[in-house]
Design brief:
The structure holds 2 protein chains of 2 kinds.
Chain A (H helix, E strand, L loop, with lengths): L4 E5 L3 H13 L3 E5 L2 H11 L3 E5 L7 H10 L6 E5 L4 H9 L4 E4 L4 H16 L12 E4 L2 E4 L4 E4 L2 E2 L4 H12 L7 H9 L7 H15 L9 E4 L3 E4 L4 E2 L2
Parallel strand pairs in A: 1-2, 1-3, 3-4, 4-5
Antiparallel strand pairs in A: 6-7, 6-12, 7-8, 8-9, 10-11
Chain B lengths: L1 H80 L4 H32 L5 E3 L1 H12 L6 E6 L9 E3 L1 H17 L6 E8 L3 E8 L6 H4 L21 H11 L3 E7 L3 E9 L5
Parallel strand pairs in B: 2-4
Antiparallel strand pairs in B: 1-3, 4-5, 5-7, 6-7
Helix pairs in contact in B: 1-2, 2-6, 3-4, 4-6
Classes of the chains: A alpha/beta, B alpha+beta.
Chain lengths: 239, 274
Amino acid sequence: MDRTRVLLVDDEKAITNNLAPLLERAGFAVAVASNGEKALQKTVAFAPDLIVLDVLMPKLNGREVLRRLRQQGDWTPVILLTQVGESTERAMALEEGADDYLNKPFDPHELIARIRAVLRRRGQSPGEKPLAMADRLRARDVTLDRPARRVEREGQALELTGRAVALLEYLMLHAHEVLSRERLLDAVWGWDYPVATRAVDARVVELRSALDDDPDAARLIETVVGQGYRFVAPVEADL
Amino acid sequence: MLTLQLRADVGMLLLLVGALLTLLGLPPAVVAVYAAGRRARELEAARAAWADDRRRFLQRLDHELKNPLTALRAGLANLASLSVGPERDTAQASVEAQLTRLNRLVGNLRKLVELEQRPLERVPADVGELLTEVVDLAIEPPDRQISLTLLQAPWPLPPASGDRDLIFLACYNLVDNARKFTRPGDAIEVRAFEDGRWIAIEVADTGPGVPEEDRSHVFEELYRGDNARAVEGSGLGLALVRAVAWHDGGRVSVRSREGQGTAFTLRLPQTRPT
């Protein structure tokens, strides 16, 4: 069977030299590109199943590469490596259709885990426009207008903090995946601190109360004991 | 004759108007020149202070990086010369510990940068509930007496206005800091009260105190007083507290007596009673 092909794009040789063999050992066929222009060329030549894309690069930065791919209708799954955990950068990454993102410095095993998770998720609807490209998401009676940062339930706008909206967005875009508190922190807050997993719990409480979701019989956000949270409702693009 | 007189009058009038305008215009002009000079001097002073801050920060950063890097080099040299066995495991663990340390430093620096750019989130935050959580977390191991007092009279504590996650981080850092700088058996008191304008959160301890010369520096990034060198930490905990206070429109201060103890006070704007 053909190995899954991963294109690794980073201008820092020290990173690609160490990550590429690690990904190979994890069972992937790996090609490396050292800048954005080469990344676009290799996307054609190598036909990767997934692209790991650094944001800060000379010539063409990662975000621009992603934008061009998506403009061409290329839905190859992309994991963005963000340099600064700047919240705006993360919000933009999602709006431009990245499937996931990871803050540098990261644990390489976490990268492998996310590659597998993205492939699993996207493998269920191959060739389709990814959910991450949709402006509006819907799950049961809840709709999320991503550019407007607005959440409605049964057509009624809900009052939510910015971070609760960002958390809901991430959960919906990763529906059916068990997401650890640490990962949610890294993705939505961009931070990690020893005790902050409680910050995640507090926002989940906020979301559940606004969405009228019973933790003991979750329609939307389920607690996976000892592991984290999972968005259990089917999510679709709301056109 | 009349025309001549008129011309003289007009001339005089013009002279008077001119003089008046000069009189009116001159003082602002003088003030403006003076103010420009003062502004330039202030700017120059601010620039010098900024350059000083920057130099001090880079020196401290250099210092914070040196030790883990030295340990990493030694650890890698050990790894290269050791074959499989417990000694190699020790060397590997020490390399990983240094990486964790560098990771934490970078992570905290990132938080500081992000705090400056983070959009303000102003939501009423229940300080009592938040401090209860902080104290619950800090109580282990039980070698310090940590107490929490939430003043209830003349009325219960109103909610603070700000970003709950950030306020939590700041309070946790203050209590964590108190733990680090006290000895087993010392008391740490956490209390919160309001004074009409602010919600004041105080974390006081019976620890060794902060020497006077260090007090004005404790909130600076990577600052370590002489007695803080032996204490493990990123050197950014209190800087983060200050950054949170500024971000949320509050302030933070310290008072201390050597040999007696220290109290940090975080003041946050309170939400208006409805």
